[in-house]
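Pasting two entries for a bug report.
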Amino acid sequence: MSIHAPDQHPYLRAPRRTLLAMTLPVLVSLIAEPLTGLADTAFVARLGTEHLAALGVGTMVLTSAFWVFSFLGVGTQTELANCLGAQDRHRASMVLTASLVLALGLGILSALLAWAFVEPAARAMGGEGEMLAMAVDYMRHRLIGAPAVLLTLSCFGALRGLQMMRAPLFIAAGLNALNILLDWMLIFGFGPFPALGISGAAIATTISQWFGALWAVLLVHRHIGIARQVRPADLRKLIVIGGDLFVRTAMVLTFLLLATRVATSAGAQSGAAHQAIRQFFFFTALFLDAFAITGQSLIGYFMGRGTTLHARHVAATVCLWSTGTGLLMAAGMLLFQRPIAWLLVPAEASSTFAQAWLIAAALQPVNALSFATDGIHWGTGDFRYLRNSMIISALCGMAVLFMPPAHSGLSALSWIWIATGVWTALRATLGIVRIWPGVGSAPLRPDA
């Protein structure tokens, strides 16, 4: 575990260059992680419509389930960043060990519990007949890799907490390369391997996930060390963080699902246009999340050092660069509106799409601030405040979602994105006031 002297951290000498140098590999790794699903989709699409529909059902259910455990990465990253700043190698090892034990335990338990529920979940997603059978088979093979997914989450959090931003990128790239090779061999059959179809895609993903997990565990053991015992206090702290982030994630999912339901209820055109805008919005979020993750590590480091002034400087820099990125994204969305509409939206939904797209573009700078402040508060360990602010903002957004004004001249889809704007603006506002001026028991207040 490399240690910087208090006045020797690269950020203090070159803030902008250091922030960008740390953010770029995070961004590439975030983009690389979804490529596993894209590789599966590309190969399975050649098997037929039923197979691809089954894959869609399986990946949607599993992605939502694994998202619940994102606290393993977030909590571990903050704790390890604090340890790095405090130069506490022993505590870093203990926290890492607790995180890995919790990840392994939750991975095994969730796989066992989910085994019996994959069929009802697939039915709830619209699966039936042969498609249902294939979706269930796919998910059950993927559940074998559940412990590997959670172990990798913990390890990536630990590595980013130590500001080793390139390591997760290399692991993600290696994992995806192996998955593509195994997809080709197992889906269609090659040499001694039989053609396994969609089951082959699941097995390929599971094998590559275990490969990535073992690589990540060996790497964190080399740089931090895995302890021989687990302290209950470390487990409790991660579980408390998990509880706060579980509620926060549940509110995010609830708002997004309700927005999708309202869009679909307004008609097929509205639903199709909403899907296109939402997917693009999620893609731009990768850029914003990269700044948030970098800010989290830097702020956690300086909080561990006890230098709140430097942590506040990181917060200002992250907000500034995130807002600038949001402005560039807004400009890009406006500039490329027509080609994106041609690519993603059926012609009959283009008029519905245009008005809502402009609203979504205008939200980008505000959305950037909401992501930036999330990363800042992750770095300070202010998870309960993040939970409460998400409850408030999501409930307000839902209230607006279901109260469209009469005779407004806005389409249902445009109103959905106005409600999304209310939700996002409240997130950003509550995040900002916790830093400047620092409402409540704010960790970043100058007198804290």
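Entry 2 (this is the one that rendered wrong in the viewer):
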Amino acid sequence: MEASPEDRIRAGLRRGDLDEVRDRLLARSLPEQVALLERLAPADRAVVYRLLPRGRAFEVFTRLDAPLQRELLEALQEEEVRGVVDDLDPDDRVRLLDELPATVARRLLAGLTPQEQDATGLVMGYPSGSVGRLMSPELVVLDAAATAAQARDTVRSRLETAETVYMLPVVTAGRLTGVVGLRRLLAADDDVPVAALAREPVAVDARVPAEEAARLCAREKLVALPVVDGDRRPVGVFTFDDALDVLEAAEDEDVARSGGAEPLGRPYLSTPVRAVYRARIVWLLVLGVGATLTVRVLEAFEATLEQMVVLSVFIPLLIGTGGNTGNQAATTVTRALALGDVRVRDGARVALRELRTGALLGASLGTAGLVGVGLLYGWDVGLVIGLTLLVVCSLAATVGGLMPVLARALRVDPAVFSNPFITTFVDASGLVVYFLVAAAVLGL
């Protein structure tokens, strides 16, 4: 099998043939170069990074996750580090500084120009996790009283430093009163006032959680979202690419926690095994303790199982079906909460909808269980399985739908109430229902 470009670059590194590595590296596209650096060991990553031209090296660096940026800086010389940090936008710089030790971060900040220090300090002044922490303070603000010609001159003067010029905030007496798109501004006659071109702004306070701002940006299909302070004064801009990064990170977190783990926060192959271990072990211990509930239920109904051993055959079917039903409901409602389709006050409506849905599912599965099990093991056992599936599916769907709403009410990430927790609860309660139905139907 022909070696991949990545394997050839690794082989060149082992031989010390840096000319070959450089040629193969420069033949790759920017996304391929980023993917390559993500998969290399830290020492090799630093060597390959130094082989990139300065402009391309900076582009590659900005696309790496913050933990990989930190590892790369640790392997570079101080002069190289300062060059990279100086070129970063304030929001990207803050993201990197958050990853670095405090002493290193202070030293790098001290080396910035006063203007860059002020811009970086503004972003760092907002709470972690807020949109203010991710915004760019490098925005172009237009005065509502200015003419279109004057506004275009303002935009041209800031083209090199502004984060974006496609969405331009409009202010009156310093406060945000509208926004105007670049296309509309370019098409306007010179003497038209900016106020006549502006439309109602969609803006967000700098202290709002970044995920909430990102979902607003996606919902309104905005290229950029103005960020304002408590007095409605524009302090920054939150662009769609940063919004996509936030939504991707939130999705990664939800997927990881729904599977009973913590998000890695970096590419899998570049994550140390110790970090993967830490992301999983705590959840496994917690869920292991929760699973003891199932064991206690089995112990409590041990006599019932001894009287009719055939009941034990269907335990995996019942608890598996209940867990899957609860997980489906939890996933659906968690998604609805994230999109704003469901709010905390909708808890009763969610419970009723999931109860009805679970009952329909349980009736369908219970009928199939009644017929299938009845033909093979007897109609009395089939009736036990059918009734249990009806009750378990109804219970699991209701609990699975309510848990994310309860989490949001408690101001906890709904993903923390993850599917493994729901499965553990449904396992224990489902077994109780199973044995109670069996005792009633079979007279045990």
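Dev reply: Rendering is fixed now. As a check, the viewer should reflect this: Residues 255 and 415 are 8 Å apart (CA to CA).
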